[in-house]
Structure formats: structure tokens, C-alpha cells
Amino acid sequence: MAIIRSSWAAHPIAIDGMINAPQWTGAGQLSLGSAGLFLVKNDAQFLYLAFDLTGDNGNDASPGDYFWLTIDVDGNRAVTPNRDLLYGVFPGQPNRIAKCYMLRPGACTGIVNEPTESQQVMHFGPSMHAPTPHRIWEMRLSLSEIGIDFAATDRPPTLRCGIRVASTTPSFVQESPANPFGDFSQLHQIVLARQLDSIYPPGTAGAVIGGVGLIPASAIGTDGRANTSPSYFIHAVDAAFGGTLNIIGNRVMMQNLWGQGARRYRVNHRVGAAPFRPLRQNWSNYRWNGTTYVLESYGPDSNNTYPMLDPSQDYSIDDLLLQWNTSAGFAAGLYQLQVEFFRADGSQVTAPAQTLTLLIDNNWPRVQLEAIRHNGNSIGLCGIEQLTPSSTLQFQFTAFDPEGNLGSYALQAFYGSGQRVDIVPSVSYTPNPSRSWQGVQSLTVNAPAAFPPVTCAYQIRVVASPRVTNGYHHLSPTSDSRFITLIKPAGTAATVAVLERTTDKMPFGV
Length: 510
Prior knowledge:
- The chain has one helix at 251-259, and strands at 3-5, 7-8, 28-31, 37-42, 46-53, 66-72, 85-90, 93-104, 107-108, 119-127, 130-142, 158-167, 172-176, 188-191, 209-212, 215-216, 240-241, 244-249, 262-271, 277-278, 283-288, 293-298, 306-307, 320-325, 333-343, 348-349, 356-360, 366-374, 377-378, 384-386, 393-400, 406-415, 419-428, 439-446, 456-466, 468-469, 478-487.
- Residues 495-499 have low confidence and may be disordered.
- It folds into three domains: 3-191, Sandwich (Immunoglobulin-like), CATH 2.60.40.1190; 209-360; 366-487, Sandwich (Immunoglobulin-like).
- It has 510 residues and is mainly β.
């Protein structure tokens, strides 16, 4: 088993099959022997991977040229059916990624039909590692698809994977480690980069508190809301904060304070205009010891101070000042944070003055599907309705956030095999002077003219997403739903082409 340390992709990598600088400079590497190299980078959304097969100089497109990438999604060193993944080459479509779920050691489902942000491209040409044209596979995998959550506090950002690459001309099959399709106990470990070395774009970090997660302090206004560019790792628009927040120190300032002898610090907070008082929290962080991550725990002492992280050490979350669980006893409101630093003897180390303001809101939007009516009469739960050409269907629902931090809402109908009709397409927050949007209460809408498309059982679902972030992504949506069966009028029956979740197609080599 090898450990591959990914490096941070400062800009999204274009998946075009070109392995060149600066996109792939500094990437984590694994030697595949005479076959070539396996390269790894990541950002907050994607894991970028490349097979730079400098040993495959035959431009073949047959089933004999392929790759496998097995992923131990839950990290338990064993095959977990319908959870762990195999990626490979889609037959006849070399620029389409094939995704399968593992069923047991050495067996997987057919290629699945699921929406994905993952991509793959096959290329034949030179690279930064060899001028002679050769086979290249370049791809990106969605972090959420492979089980990586940068906001998770219970595990470091690591991933176990296995590799097979094959070539027709010259003929070879290279596996790393051995039997990656059947034995997950010795898979390689990819250690993802959690952040840039300087974490925030130049000039955007706060003087002491650099930011919250990936959101720099300069992107957070005095009203406690975050706004970032659409091209940034996380796009926030007038977003409040919630969940567990990683309060990150300014790296340069942390190094300076450490050099002045600072070894402990205190985080003070207040809500509204109340006096500042110490913020007491407990958390864990992983420290890299040169071989693996070691879990270390942190908490306040009797003086409400925490130990400073040694800036020369490598942590899963570098420069972490505080992991603040805002959902545990912190009411919605406007909070302010300040930090003061101390030497080991208790004397204070002067730091620049900074007050970071955060609007905290952990209250979920109120979501309710209140009524479904056929010709004005309510349809009961699991009701079966025979429609006529003159039938009218109405839906009454609420998607309301009293604090004004609603991000979007939609009313949808699901049927068949994951097929969907948007009764009310997604309605999203529009920036306005108040920076507030509550949504709707007891709104009644008519079904679209073409609804229902077929006779079927339907799940009618109203879903709402909060405009609240933890610094890495927005908090999850909430929903309410009912199930009804709708029978179309005689003579208007329609058929639906059901897209099965899995196909009978298998990736090359399986």
C-alpha cells in the first residue's frame, strides 16, 4: 500500500487530456512501473486524476486499452456492496466515464445511469513527463460522489483506491496494488489537500482570523453574510453561517505570533451588543506524522485558552483556531469573534485588532405540502384518482424561512425510475437591499397542462434549501412529500421509457 499526497488545484483543471504545466505541476504521484505515472490533485469540489501512460506508445482504441479505478468509499478496507465504486472506460465512448457499484470482491453492477459531475477524456500525445506521444487518461471525480466531505469533523480527507491499466500495443496489464478488483485490504491511500498553502486568495484573509472554512474574512460583511465570486470554490450569495464552522487563522500572522512566543490563545464571542466572553469548544484535528494522520484533541484550559498549532507541522486542517459547533446551543443571531494570544508564562502577545461578524442560523426552513386537490376536493394520503379531460389538479404548499435565509424552493413530482416533472421549477433567492427572503406560505398552484405525463404512482415533493453555509458548502435541503396515484383519462394513455438504474454494459476489461 502506498500513500499518495494530493496537492491543491489552485484553479479547476480542464479535462482535455493534456498533462502539462501549470495545471499538473506539483501533483501527487504514484509510479506504475514501466507503464507510467498516476497523478493526483484536488480542490473543494473534485478529485483530479490522470494516468500518464508513457509506456503505452501504441495508439489503439480497442477494448484492450483501458483503466480501472476502484474506490473504497466507506474506507473499511473491504468491498461494501452498492456503496464502493469501480470507474472505467465506457464501451464505444472513450470520453465518457463508466461508473459501477461493487457487489462483492471481483464483481460489480453494470454501468449505472446516474447524473454525475464526474468526467473523463482519453488522449494520445506528449505530456510534461515524456515528449513521445503516448496514452493519457484524464478525469475528475466529484468529491461528494466518492464520499469526501471537507466539512466532516470525524475523519481526515483520505480515500483508498486501486488501479489497473492495460494496453494492446505494447501488451501489458499493470495493477497497483495487486488484485484491486478483488482485494480492498491493501488499496493505496490518497491524502487530499484540504486547502491552498496560503489558503485564501492574496489580500482576502482577515488580519488574525483568516476566514471560515474556504471563505475569506474579506468576503464576509459587517452584517455577517458571505458573498463570493461564482468562480470561487464555494459560491455564496448573502449567505448566513451554520453547522460546524472551522475558524481558520491567517497563516502569515500565525507564523509571526508563534515567532513572538505565542503558545496559547483565547477566542471571545458575543451575540448582538452583549459583552464579549470566552467561547469554549472541543474538537479534534489530524496531524501528519510523516506516515499517517494522528488524531489530536483540543479544548480550553481553566483560563479558557487553547494551545496554538505549531505552524511548521502539517495538519489535516492547517491554521485551525476553533471548530465551532454553532448548532449546539447558539440561537440564530449576529455573533462577533475576537482572538487574543499569550505566551507560555501567560503574558499577552499583541496581535492586530480584528472583529469577525457572523450571522448564525441553524433553523431549517419550514416546509409542508399542505394539500393536493382534484377538482377542488382534497386527495387523501395514498389516494388513487381517476382523471377526466376536464380535471384540474392543485397543490398547496409552504416553503418559508422566518429568518429570511431561504436559498430556493421547488415543487416536483417523481415517478417511474427517478423521472421528474417540475410542477414549480426551482425559485431562487434574488439579491435585494434587505438581503432577506422568506419564501412562500400556503401558496396554491395549478398543475402544468401536460401533467401527469403517464398513469403512474407519483411522489409529490416540496423541497427548500437554506441560504446557509459552513464555509465549504451550503447546508442540505429539507423536504416534505406525499404519494398519490393518478390515472389518465381513457384514450390518453401514454407510455414512459423507463431508464433503468443499471445497464447490461460493463466497462472494458470487466
